[in-house]
Design goal:
It holds the Pfam family TetR_N. The longest helix is centred in the N-terminal third of the chain and has 34 residues. Helix 1 crosses helix 2, helix 4 packs parallel to helix 8 and helix 5 packs antiparallel against helix 11. The radius of gyration is 20 Å and the shape is globular. The model has no long low-confidence stretch (mean pLDDT 93). It folds into two domains: 56 residues, Orthogonal Bundle (Arc Repressor Mutant, subunit A), CATH 1.10.10; 151 residues, Orthogonal Bundle (Tetracycline Repressor, domain 2). It is mostly helical and 212 residues long. It has eleven helices and no strands.
């Protein structure tokens, strides 16, 4: 009897934690760490506050876990691009396109990053799981640049960290400032045609920076 009960309890616990994390991601993305309410998270997760604190200790710890999962998700998706199977120019275009599309499809990621920056990255500083995945990503971009150099496609000496910052920034700024930008520049930033134009501009910008 115990052998069948224990796996079921484990499955139930895993399912509960997933519901809590999903609800917490939405609440933190909408209201930030300070404005997020644990009782709202509990209600959306069909759990109770005691259960949340049992699994995650505190609201701060829950926010850290949500943030870690958000970064792990994008880093894992980047690794699945398998850029080493593409010619360097095509691989770089694929990375720029992926970043743009990921931000478009996951607006909660952008707001979570904004929130953590308001807290001066104190939760990321405590994280033990993100440094390795970030190093792997930098290594992946570094390998791509090296292949491009050897093939005569890319300039020498490009810093993979600087390149990643630029790729992220040209997508991030456009999307996080889409409301004010639409007013100031008198164009609908989220019109599909404008989104397509922006992606083309992002790709051209990066390729002009990197290519020989």
């Amino acid at each position: 009897m115990a052998s069948t009960t224990k796996p079921k309890r484990i499955r139930d616990a895993d399912a509960t934690q997933k519901r809590i994390l999903s609800a917490a991601r939405k609440e933190f993305a909408k209201n930030g760490l300070g404005g997020a309410r644990v009782d709202v998270i509990a209600e959306r997760a069909k759990a109770n506050k005691r259960m949340i604190y049992h699994y995650f200790d505190s609201k701060e710890s829950l926010f850290q876990r949500v943030l870690e999962d958000a970064y792990l998700d994008i880093r894992t998706a980047e690794q699945k691009l398998e850029l080493d199977h593409l010619a360097p120019p095509e691989a770089l275009k694929a990375l720029v396109t992926f970043t743009w599309n990921y931000y478009l499809k996951n607006p909660e990621f952008l707001t979570l990053v904004n929130s953590e920056n308001l807290h001066k990255a104190r939760h990321l500083k405590r994280s033990t799981v993100l440094k390795d995945v970030s190093r792997r990503f930098v290594g992946m971009v570094g390998d791509l640049l090296k292949r491009g150099e050897e093939a005569g496609d890319f300039r020498k000496g490009i810093d993979p960290v600087q390149l990643n910052i630029t790729i992220a920034a040209i997508s991030y700024y456009y999307l996080t400032n889409r409301f004010t930008g639409s007013i100031l520049f008198e164009r609908d930033f989220m019109d599909q045609g404008k989104l397509d134009e922006r992606l083309e501009f992002n790709i051209e910008t990066v390729m002009r920076m990197v290519c020989v």
